[in-house]
Amino acid sequence: MAMPADLETDAARLRDVMAKTLAQDGSLDHPAWRAAVETVPRHRFVPGFYLPADERDGQGLTVWEPVTGQLDYGRWLAAAYSDTTLITQFDGDEPDWQNPVVRHGGAPTSSSTLPSLVVRMWRDADVQEGHTLLEIGTGTGYSTALACERLGSADVTSIEVDPHRLEQAANALYGCGYTPTLAVADGLYGYWPEARFDRIVAACSFRAVPQALVAQTRPGGKILLTLSGWLYGYARVLLTVGEDGTAEGQLLPGTVSFMTARTHSAPAFGNPAHWAAGLPERPRAARHSPERINASTEEAFHLRFLAQSAVPCAQMANVGEVLHLVDVVTGSAATLTPRDGAWYVREGGPVKLWTRVESLLDAYDEAGQPGPATFTLHLDDDGQYLRHPRLPTLLLPRP
């Protein structure tokens, strides 16, 4: 099926509606960013994407339906101009959008971030005219285009670790008249040829702040990125780089998560049953339920990040009702099992994983359950320290 002749007219109308909606809910409170959203044709950057079906398959996996203009013009264009993240790739496999197929499950590895969050990132990083910008994670190129519209292409550098993704993004950007500096590069190392930058903004998450990013930022410049880890806890931080090469900044409020930088992804840990087999037979009663870090609440989202900072090499897996904690670095493991309305712990190895998490939760409660914005991250040559005036300092893993 050919695209309708009035595609650009339809797109302009929907783009205007989206901008008005974002402005009304407070997401577009700056006229320059609103003008960028009204101008950049998002549909040019998402020729195909996946949307979840209403029901899971027989194995409980999410069914991802491909959406293109050829398959369903109305659905494709409406989604392109909705405030929604559009998944464009799973498991690092670049789809053939001329002959797309339904996906069952899989791990998203590239997407077009929802427009309100893209603008929020640029706003939180205080990106302004005259700034030089490094964007880590080009993705589809839509966010890059918004930055080019605001700053001018000459001041924008965007890097992407996936060469196929960058090729698609480059074609869309150049086709729309945007000519930023683009490169296939790992965000862990930034991009030295264009350094130093006034702003660095990452559209992926890291276990700790890459030191190269600090070195590539001008004194007084800012770095905005998401911290994550192997428990899939997330926190965003806005750092200001000092004259002495240190950096410091507060965690930001909210529940924002990004895909993990591929070099910081969690390693495979094997069969949970193998890890559990060597644990003590006799359990103890848990002082805290795992729901404290697993619940679908803003506090649990924050607590999972803090718990992850206390046990930075731990991973979680559920097998039936049993929650497994596994640490491939130290060889430690723990299980939490529900029984008669309570939880029971078995743990072994050099690090008592759930005991350490419980100690963090105890301290958090005693400190009055402080929110993200009360925590400060400090970076120097000795390490990266998450600090709160009423809590023990947490050391992030070496990047």
From TrEMBL:
EC number: 2.1.1.77
Keywords: Cytoplasm, Methyltransferase, S-adenosyl-L-methionine, Transferase
GO molecular function: methyltransferase activity
Subcellular location: Cytoplasm
Domain of life: Bacteria
GO terms under biological process: methylation
EC class: transferase
Family per record: Belongs to the methyltransferase superfamily. L-isoaspartyl/D-aspartyl protein methyltransferase family.
Record's protein name: Protein-L-isoaspartate O-methyltransferase
